[in-house]
């Protein structure tokens, strides 16, 4: 093969190679766009199905936080006996039972939200225990001490509920 023939062969191949490279580039670009579109549609469909479930989980946790708020808890749960320790344990048992009932809701919310809810529960129990260490001897006095503590500072449930509301609002953004 002579130099002219090689040059002629190269002149015929060059447009075919350029056309093939451009076609490959556009095909790859089209494939990426289609994958992105499919992913978006799948995400959109799954949002339609999961959003109501997630909202229900947030609703249940809001109800949990309202139910363990100390001022509503001591009004709702009356002492059954004469011992202060029995009433303290009853209040804590109510909180733990409510929490265990809603334990599965954690899969529908962020880790930070779930951790704040757990912290509110633990802090509420801590407040009950610290009020139980006071010199009072009757369950009614314990109720009074707990209510006095909630008057002085913000309830842990209220702080957690504010965070839950903020997170639900972010679902719409």
TrEMBL record:
Q: Give one Pfam family.
A: DUF7935
- What keyword terms does UniProt attach to this protein? Membrane, Transmembrane, Transmembrane helix
Q: Per the UniProt record, which residue ranges are transmembrane? A: 6-27
Recorded source organism is Flagellimonas halotolerans
Please name the InterPro entries in this protein's record: DUF7935 (IPR057695)
Lineage, top ranks = Bacteria, Pseudomonadati, Bacteroidota, Flavobacteriia, Flavobacteriales
How is this protein named in the record? Answer: Uncharacterized protein
